[in-house]
Write a structure and sequence with these properties.
Blueprint: H1 2-30, E1 37-40, E2 44-47, E3 60-64, E4 68-69, E5 75-79, E6 87-95, E7 101-110, E8 117-120, E9 125-127, H2 134-137, E10 138-142, E11 146-147, E12 153-157, E13 165-174, E14 180-190, E15 198-201, E16 205-209, E17 220-225, E18 228-229, E19 234-239, E20 247-256, E21 262-272
Parallel strand pairs: 2-7, 9-14, 16-21
Antiparallel strand pairs: 1-3, 3-4, 5-6, 6-7, 8-10, 10-11, 12-13, 13-14, 15-17, 17-18, 19-20, 20-21
């Protein structure tokens, strides 16, 4: 009886061993050990800020030894923040049918990228009893993100509430690619004269290139007193503007009436390189 059990045990063990070896060999010969590969036509891709996301896949293909061409399975895994203005990296990923994953990166250059710019909805001249709302007066636009006014941050200000004077406000805005711009603006808080002319400007903030010399009088849209249009007025334009020196300048418009009332508005000019 004991010998019979020993024989049965040996047979069962042998069958188990043979089965294990057989399945191991089958797995060895049937398992896909090839890895997919991503090929990129060029290490740097130049695109426009107006291009759609799918243009990032231009010139990218993928192949797997078992599955063949798997270009249609390529995914954009991530796009980095800018490593320098207008330049970032994109990471591609692809998986074969056995879930083997390959990744590759390349540089993306936006040929027509420009940094964000601030804009003003009104001149930063307030009466002493007027609510000072810088966030409502200043916005920002970006060539990639569109309007990013909700991202404008006030970094610092020396403004004193309900006090006449000249104050500075430091602004910052950052787009989705991590590019930040800064601007220090001057806010004038003045006494309230009900009969003072109101000066409406075409724009309250402009960006120009070094060397440009705009005609500041052309930025006056209209002048009114108590809602009535003034067709003639005395105008004085005062500024320290220097078109050859990059920086931020204020152009002051002063308009006076025959009765001695004076209106004031400001055009902020940013001179870029």
């Amino acid at each position: 009886m004991i010998k019979l059990l020993q024989k049965i045990t040996i047979i069962v063990f042998s069958l188990t061993l043979v089965t294990f070896v057989l399945f191991t060999l089958i797995a060895e010969f049937t398992t896909d050990r090839t890895l997919p590969e991503i090929a990129i036509a060029s290490e740097e891709l130049e695109i426009s800020v107006n291009d759609k996301d799918d243009v990032l896949l231009n010139g990218v293909t993928a192949y797997d030894g078992k599955d063949g061409d798997i270009t249609d399975k390529i995914l954009i895994e991530s796009v980095s923040k800018f490593v320098k203005p207008g330049v970032c990296t994109v990471t591609y990923a692809v998986a074969d049918s056995d879930r083997h994953v390959a990744k590759k990166t390349r540089t993306i250059r936006y040929t027509d990228y420009t940094p964000p710019e601030f804009y003003m909805k009104r001149a930063l001249v307030y009466s002493v009893d007027e609510a000072l709302d810088i966030r409502g007066a200043v916005g920002a636009r970006d060539c990639l993100d569109g309007d990013i006014s909700d991202k404008v941050t006030i970094l610092a200000t020396d403004y004193v509430q309900n006090t006449a004077g000249v104050f500075t406000v430091s602004l910052q805005v950052t787009n989705s690619m991590g590019d930040s711009i800064y601007l220090d603006v001057t806010v004038h808080v003045e006494g309230n004269e009900t009969m003072a002319p109101e000066i409406q400007l075409e724009k309250s903030l402009i960006y120009i290139k070094k060397g440009e010399k705009p005609v500041f009088e052309d930025y006056i849209k209209e002048v009114t007193v108590n809602g009535k249009l003034m067709k003639s007025y005395n105008l004085l334009v005062s500024t320290n503007f220097d078109s050859d020196e990059p920086g931020t300048y204020n152009v002051h418009y002063y308009i006076s009436t025959n009765e001695g009332y004076e209106g004031h508005s400001i055009l902020t000019v940013v001179v870029e390189e």
